[in-house]
Amino acid sequence: MTLHPITLQYQGETEMSGGDLVGILMVGKQL
Q1: How far is CA 11 from CA 21, 29, in A?
Q2: Rg for the chain (alpha carbons), in Å?
């Protein structure tokens, strides 16, 4: 599973805006 890069982006995006969580989930599904 490639959750490492997604987790890193998730943490960074969460700091800026929690709304990006949906976007990251979509990226995870695409990967």
Answers
A1: 9, 17
A2: 9
Would the CA dihedral through 9, 14, 20, 22 be positive or negative? Answer: positive
What does pTM read for this prediction? 0.30
Query: Which helix or strand (DSSP H or E) is residue 18 part of?
Result: none
CA distances from 18 to 1, 11, 12 (A): 23, 9, 10
Q: What is the pLDDT of residues 11-25, one digit of tens each?
A: 555 555 556 667 777
Helix (H) or strand (E) holding 14: helix 3-16
